[in-house]
Structure prediction request, 296 residues.
Amino acid sequence: MSTRPPPPTPTTGRSVYGLRVYGLDHVAELRGGEGPCPAEVTVEIRQTDAPPPPPVPVDERRSVRRLADGRHLALDRAAGRATFFGDPLPADLLAHPYLGPVATTFSRWAGRETFHAGAFVLDGLAWAVLGSRTAGKSSLLAALAGRGVPVLTDDILVVDGRVAYAGPRCVDLRQPVPQVTVDLRAARGGTRWRVSLPPVAPRVPLGGWIFLRWGPAPALVPVGAARLLPHLAAHRSWRQLPSDPAVLLALATLPAWTLTRPRCWEPLAATCRLLYTTLGTESGRPAPSSGARGTA
Prediction:
């Protein structure tokens, strides 16, 4: 088999997850960022149909892993390179989910923490939304986006100290959120509905944590620091890589809540209002009184 030549290296790259990514200029979800991002980690993305190298568990230098679809992904920290082995990936899949393991691994190598989480921005602060794959993170973020609330990232949150980085400009849903007006299109081979997001600042101060849980009615219950640290540890990426305990302890001092709401669409508007009110008060500024679009 022949090796396809890598795409031409652009002059500026794309800013996403605190990375400066080269080789993905054709990916629409990585366009439209609001200016350069300081202290970015440079990564070049390549694709090839050459035979892949043998698997190598992730360590502090490199990783080669077999992906669920049979492709292989090789990461080289020293070279600043990520190589996908296999058939060419469509642009929408490169944006998400295939950029995910590249971003999390290179970010962890850079000393940053990464979490299976989304995040939205309220009063200039990023609020992380954490939960299992069926906890409704993306549907909540889509509902907030439909009300004019900036969404920072959908599925992966990269933090450097108390700074959170923006992800691709999309949220992926298994089904549309009723009565919420957003720009939707089919993505990922028709398995997801993709919400297009407007540009957002490349990095935002982290305000705190929201853990999702299903319950009888919308409610926010504070999470104490003693419980927060193990909760955060459970949602971290690549826990086999070393972390600075002081960083994790600092993250565990931020405000945190458990958000419960029913497994139905009707209380979604009340859930969003509860977040506005509580987090607006927590940030020391009034909750937003305008900018909402649509209802749920």
